[in-house]
């Protein structure tokens, strides 16, 4: 060996000694490495033998010691200092009670508690690595980490599952994960056992969203009937692929279905479900090969294209006629991509499940995601739908496109919005002008959209129909929004959806669609016409002439710039002509405005009373006790009080209980400094005036009458 031009001679015995020392050091490093770092073990790709504390059955744990022989045996999971050798019956109880019953289960395996000296300690000042004398612990089946507490072990396993690390590298023979087959709308889907838990890697399937899937299917079926050629539709977040499979299985050659998901496990699950439903799969996982994959198999009606891309990427690369967005949470991150490349007169549907922000439980999140200021009101569900539509309108306007709202549904688990895309700056400007602020009174919950214009008003409280600002101290109203102020439904589109739901036997969607039709026309269910939506020979909607079953004319669209502008102008004139018949914005909850100490009439009877008073009324799907009407809140309360009965009366009267002049007299404010609440005053019948007691002194001028057994409170001005 030459070093610094000096010759150094090393004898063979010295080299052999160093080699032996290196071997001993290597063995020591291997021995300490197995005990020191569990993370390094988890990063290895080859399978290893599991720890003896991880077994499938109690019998497997007992096989570690031969319990058949009549001699004392030690516990395989406890040191001799902790548990001495004993006979088989005592050892069996020890294994069952101390190790097996407190185990942690995962995929058929039990991680039993271990008392062996397995856990290392940190090196001391000298640097020696010694074994600890710590007590019970668990061995992770995935990464072989040692955890002391059982609750920490359960959390440790859950973190592995959430990260997608579900395959154990320490099991020599991996156990196949069981699958469960679910059926919905004649479509079979194969799901994992934890399908009801939303995770990043496992395919998510929510049975509670069946109504949502049926509504989207009806919307796609209506669009397919409008077109003569097959339409290209995209399910941007496939998960199990249930929605795209239903489209392809029922609509057949009318649609070309593309199911996308960015997760590899979900893509594999979608392929299995396609084969399970006897559908052919055209896999496309490369972004640059998208255009080449379009030409193969287009004529095959039973072929579903499965892609593995980010949703924004595939919507930028390809154009579609129908796009559905159903991410986990908010969908605002994908709106720009959806409207960037969607075809003219196409449909975009989106499902939002971030209800904590939309339903005003996390108001700061709603301001961050949607740019809207909202609070919790009695009409919070409709407010959430209008917030989502406002975000959709702004995203479409950035792409010089307008929208027409076809459907807006807000239920317990989701908010669904379906819009039609109108290309051009004029529809974009018209749609953007419908985004306005809302003035909401926090005392009586009256609300009204702010007037259009850029001029600042001196007293915006004058726009509210109520006079709470003049009678109540402080600021009584708040400004919400900006939100969508236009209509939420398209009556013609809903009728055709109802026809498709009846045709395909979607029983759960039919009652909701019937309620939506009544709500769109603002009528009660008994006044709803039941004629088929295809009775007329020709229907026009957004410039599209729709072929009906009664005629054999082909579908056609108006092509060309000049014709398209004429059609859009005619559609705008038609919309302005029908603006007077649009449904009223928002609704009132009959329970929120009930009178204290009075029995309200039945909801259906109350709707008839409002209708007899000359107002448009209907029920709403947003609230089962909600009433959508164009009546002001004051008239709403007047009619409600007129047909309410006292609590002690023991029943509800069919006709009005109070005369109109009595109600008006009760609403008057008497005295310069004192007034009475309408809810705290009970007005008696004219026949019982002789038994009533009037107020004394400054209250003697009041025309209201108090009941003998009813305590009435007054408030100072």
Automatic annotation (TrEMBL):
Q: What is the lineage of its organism?
A: Eukaryota, Metazoa, Chordata, Craniata, Vertebrata
Recorded hits in Pfam families, A to Z, give: TRM
Q: Where in the cell is it found?
A: Nucleus, Nucleolus
Query: Where does the C2H2-type domain start and stop, copy by copy?
Result: 140-160
Name the InterPro entries for this protein: SAM-dependent_MTases_sf (IPR029063), Trm1 (IPR002905), tRNA_met_Trm1_C (IPR042296), Znf_C2H2_type (IPR013087)
Tell me its family.
Belongs to the class I-like SAM-binding methyltransferase superfamily. Trm1 family.
Q: Where is the composition biased (Basic and acidic residues)?
A: 22-32
Q: Where is this region: Disordered?
A: 1-44
**Taxonomically, which superkingdom?**
Eukaryota
Its name, as the record gives it, is tRNA (guanine(27)-N(2))-dimethyltransferase
The coding gene here is Trmt1l
Query: GO biological process annotations for this chain's record?
Result: tRNA N2-guanine methylation
Q: Which GO terms describe its molecular function?
A: tRNA (guanine) methyltransferase activity; tRNA binding; zinc ion binding
